[in-house]
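Reader question, answered in our methods column.
A reader sent in the components of a multi-part assembly and asked whether the whole thing could be modeled at once rather than chain by chain. We filled in our standard form and ran it. Here is what they sent:
COMPLEX SIZE: three components
ENTRIES:
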Amino acid sequence: MPFSLRSRWTIPAAGATAVAAALVISPMVADASPSLPPRTAAELLASTTAAADHPFSGTVVETARLGLPDLPMSGAGSTSLSATSLVTGSHTARVWYAGPGRSRIALVGDLAESDVIRNGTDAWTWSSATNTAQHLTLPSETAKAPTPTIDVTPAQAAAKALAAIDPTTTVTVEGTASIAGRSAYELVLAPRDAGSLVAQVRLAIDSVTSTPLRVEVFARGAGKPAFETAFTSITFATPDPAVFAFSPPRGAKVTEQTMGAAPAPGARPDAAKDAAQPTVVGTGWTSVAVIKGVDLSAAGGNAQLSTLLRSAKQVSGSYGTGRVVTTALVSALLLDDGRLLVGAVTPAVLEQAATRAG
Amino acid sequence: MPADPSPAIATRGLTKRFRSGQVAVDGIDLMVPRGCVYGFLGPNGSGKTTTIRMLLGLVSATEGEHELLGESMPAHAASVLPRVGALVEGPAFHPYLSGRANLMRLDAGDRSVAAAGAGRRVDEALERVGLAAAAGKRYRNYSLGMRQRLGLAGALLRPRDLLVLDEPTNGLDPQGTREVRTLVRELGAEGSTVFLSSHLLSEIEQVSTHVGVMSHGRLVFQGTLTALRQAAGVRVRVETTRPDEAAAVMRALGTGTTAVHATSGVTSSVVADLSDGDGTPVDTAQLVEQLVKAGVPVHEVVVERPDLEDLFVELTGEGFDVDQ
Amino acid sequence: MRSQPLRLFRSELRLVFGRRRNQALLAVLSTAPILIGIAVRVSSPGGDGEGPAFLGQITQNGLFLAFTALTVTLPFFLPLSVAVVSGEAIAGEASSGTLRNLLVVPVDRTRLLLVKYASIVVFGLAAALVVWGVGLIVGLLLFPHGAVTLLSGTTVSFANALGRALLVALYVAAMLAGVGAIGAFFSTLTEVPMGAMAATAVLTIISEIVGAVPQVRVIWPYLFTTPWLAFGDLLRSPVPLHAMAIGLLTEGVYIALFLLLAWARLTTKDISS
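And here is the structure of the entire assembly that came back:
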């Protein structure tokens, strides 16, 4: 009798063990590398650039580990969904794509959502938190052209990474991966220049549709990607057209904008801030953006920025004096003369650029 | 009395050792025949309540086994316990429910009865313990005596083959105590077996047919009330000036332990058990006759029946102290 | 005899809902939508995205008061009220001594646990529905109603939104069932109901705090409080089911494990009170 009573505890223990085993084993099964016929990097690149436009819908999770200070999230519903918030933490977006000119990205937050919808010549942005919508009417000839949106889908991120391929980069195919239940090749891009903070960029490319399913950016000496965006689920089927139909809800603040065939930059409302438009020094992986006239004295209100600035290191050289901030993937040099240099490079490269751009 | 051969309660080596190492109940062999009123006697802390909790399956036995109404427990609790009414360690009810609502809740838990008769069963039980007038009152507002009565009503929700009543007269006034005593006798007369625990000998003595005495977790006596009285041993004391001759005569008649005590004055006392254990008791009339025939001067002959209270103290070994 | 298995359950429900303390808990919960509704009504219109989610939308559509009230009460007041009722479940009967009465009736210990847990789940559902229902009534009395704008900017009919709101309340009730299972387990460990209630509430709050500290992000998916706010997905178009399915699975695992623990504890426990 005492045994049979004590043995009852083995039942919850067995249950807990089963749950733990499921938690350990299921990612192992999911991560198992599928076996695929070998491909060279060239074949893979070719198939990617020549890939037919596959309509799809899916969910993308973007994670950034840039080494920026993490701050506790505040209460429900206050999660910021601005594009700048993408540099920290983990974010989820739902993506629908029916072809060029018909797409929708929904950045999903707790009890909030920000959408970018492109439907032919209509482009909408919508923010549930502020209850505002922006309507942009595009010229008809651009109706089929892809929308410039936030670089959050693997397709967009991959396009940028592939554009960067030049003699500064080694390109290899390294094994396979299973992403969102699909088999993919892993294409690895590694900068040759030691001045780059980027160790490698890994693209997982769907073995059937050649759609990039995951992009990982590894910083030097880091085991985990500093930036990662990947599909957690994807379906290759044309989404319901209703997804792209957007009409602003009653009571929302709507701003209308019509975009001409060649919009004059001077027409932009922020033309007065022209001085802040960046110039780019250098090429490829070691490009450095130089922004003039930066004044961070008003940054005190931003907890993250002020924490970051407190960690800054004083530097000086022939370019003058300033403060340098390094994160896993990005370095920034803020000179006392108001110049800000930013790049995915070592601080030394920034200092050289500062001297040259002087 | 039903002819069912199986005892109402039977335990073999029932033992409870707490995790602290304390042995609350130490290998007891209870044997409660059907139809009797069994007085379970022992000082506070002697293991009575722990035994009752084990009998009812509230506390698991460390060792040993037991049966209620011929079925092994706790395996057959579901089929046996509906036939057992119990009041364990005083009444306990939800304070913010009425007495009636509390009993309705207990009735709702019993899967062996039909829902339809619930109101009638509860009202009858309340009637039987004299609580019908206070049925709608919240338990919180009951006096101690009313609470005890409600506890009894819970045990009497339906006809029971066995009633296990733990200190049922606790907190009752003399009037209430008498009523409970009458109730127990009635239940016994109706054919139910009543297992009644108490630390008061007087209470057990008045209603019981059988007695078990607990001390320090052990069952130190078990048997009928008559057997207990006999165990107490009737003794005879003879006052005489020739004690040695008297003692010889008494031994010759077959008395038990016989001893001579010198007393002050001219006579001495010869004290002897009237029975030597197994044999039939010696007849006092015959004893006096033989003494006289032997020429022993008899100054005084006294037959001593020791109080059960004294025996109880002798068995359990203490007065007011609580067992540890 | 037909309704036999439900008799104890009904008795249990009467005990839970008949208890003044529990009625007071529901009354306190119902004040949340009333206070929010009045505050929004008397203050100047126009939300600027500050404050709890949906607050700005209430002035345009009273239905959002129900969502806001659920959002505001979900982190603390709803789980607290379930912690009180679940912590009471077994420990309350043990402390008043009524547990021994029930067990000698006899009520099988496994059956008692299931009946107790079922009544906790019903109380959680009632609590969610009270917040939802009072929010709906106050919202419709104080504010206009009509078609509803979802988080995705899509507009749906009032009936459609009402259906979604009901599903939100049901999802919230399912999340509270997880708290209830934890409370039921703690309730088998002690004879002091306050202890079980406090332990349950504290564990919930700790889980929520851990769920807000990004440095321990890796354990977020395993917390029972993480999926609570996924009910917001019911207000998107099309409705993504994945996060809510994960949420239900998470609570399901917590419920199964804690009920098994509670069962192992209760069925081997010596009832010495």
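What stands out: Confidence is low (pLDDT under 50) at residues 319-324 of chain B. Chain B touches chain A at residues 60-62 (CB under 8 Å).
Send us your own complexes using the same form.
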